[in-house]
Write a structure and sequence with these properties.
Layout: H1 13-21, E1 31-36, H2 41-54, E2 58-63, H3 87-97
Parallel strand pairs: 1-2
Helix pairs in contact: 1-2
Length: 106
């Protein structure tokens, strides 16, 4: 697979997608790219680059997969303001109130 890197040696996935997609899409068909949902700015920037590279030819579908428990199922406020500072209280609350989700069929 062709890899495109920036001046810091980091892969430029959205540039790779442009080159890879050039021979992949058939006129009139939509391309769906599945990827793991991320949280840092650099990774979110890559997501935006991939969306831009896809344009109207396809879509980027992001799936949560970083943790055993889905972030929306955690027994804390959505802004995580109640998140404990240490692991043991986190583990106790999560194991008492959460179950891992079933696998998602694609």
């Amino acid at each position: 697979m062709l890899q495109v890197k920036d001046s810091h040696g980091r892969r430029r996935y959205h540039e790779e997608l442009r080159l890879w997609d050039a021979g992949l899409c058939i006129e009139g068909q939509q391309l769906t790219v599945l990827a793991q949902m991320e949280v840092t700015k650099e990774e979110l920037d890559v997501d935006e680059g991939v969306r831009a590279a896809l344009g109207s030819r396809g879509r980027l579908q992001l799936l949560w997969g970083n943790t055993l428990y889905h972030k929306d199922d955690l027994p804390f406020r959505s802004d995580m303001s109640e998140l404990p500072d240490v692991f043991t209280p986190f583990k106790q609350k999560v194991t008492a109130h959460c179950n891992p989700r079933k696998l998602t069929a694609l």
